[in-house]
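DM from R.C. (forwarded with permission)

"hey, sorry to bug you on a friday — could you get me a structure for this? deadline for the figure draft is monday and I only need the backbone to look sensible"
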Amino acid sequence: MKIITVLPGDGIGPEVTASAVRVLQSVFQNSKTEVQFIEKKIGGAAIDAYGTPLPQETIDQCKRSHAILLGAVGGPKWNQQSMQLRPEQGLLGIRKAMGLFANLRPVEAFQALVDASPLKRSFVEQVDFIIVRELTGGLYFGRPSERLGPNQDRVVDTLAYSRQEIQRVVEKAFQLAMKRRRKITSIDKANVLESSRMWRELVNETSKRYPEVAVTHQLVDSAAMQLITNPSQFDVLVTENMFGDILSDEASVLTGSLGMMPSASLRADKVGLYEPAHGSAPDIAGQGKANPLATILSAALMLRYSFDMDREAKQIEAAVRDVLNQGYHTSDLQIDRPDHRTVNTTEMTDRVISAINQNETIHQ
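My reply, with the result:
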């Protein structure tokens, strides 16, 4: 029996996780795999229910699970909370509690959506890379931020990394590169930051064990420009926590919407947390406008990395591609073409499930 903990979160989180659960149920039913979905609270919903963004019972349940499916957290309702009680602390906390150190964000141009990107077609149609972001160190996990001075007119945030934290995520990136096109771009700010100099040293040390992988070092400001001006050059990008957070959101421009960006947060074993890269979008919550595809594609990553069900993962990805090629999309994707039709969250999910079942029937 496989156990998946579902953390719907806030805003559109419950809608998109419900869509992904429906897709997973269809896939597991077709493969005759027994699975149990258990729902727990995180983020703002947990603050409302328990007074904390990450209740202990949520942590305990996640630790009993084979995989975790997360929606999104946050919203203006909780903006006045202290830093320690913000919904986002629930997300940071569960990553830390579960030891999830590597965030994988695939960025692939779907041909049906190339025109949804504000960039020229020639820039994006060959895009296929993956960003590997370190998750448990850096500025987000330094010692508590401080306000200093008699009038508290200075602030301090601490960027801290250990060799072990850097080494394990770099190793993961090289392992991925070996399964792809064997190219790594390591992104840092080694001309300014000591942490980046250590990062670069460890990348160079690791590369000696992977002579087949070509390694390029790039400063983060240059990488930000290259992601827009020449994105097809990249295969595997590896970087620290904050740089990866910013660059992966920038990369969503290439796919036309954050609603198309899945992610997987992994540790050394097969346990992982899977979530869309987008936020909770409280302004459209409950209206059926949410794009479920990033969460559905995150569910495909779950099958691949946590359950070794690569065939079924490819089924989901192929189904998403088929539905998009048929001209269906949600309202976040601005496509002004007569052969494209805007659908709501439920209809998009229905069509993906139908495509999965259709492809499964053909291959039986």
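R.C.: lifesaver. The chain has a mean pLDDT of 92.
me: no worries. The chain is about 40% helix and 20% strand.
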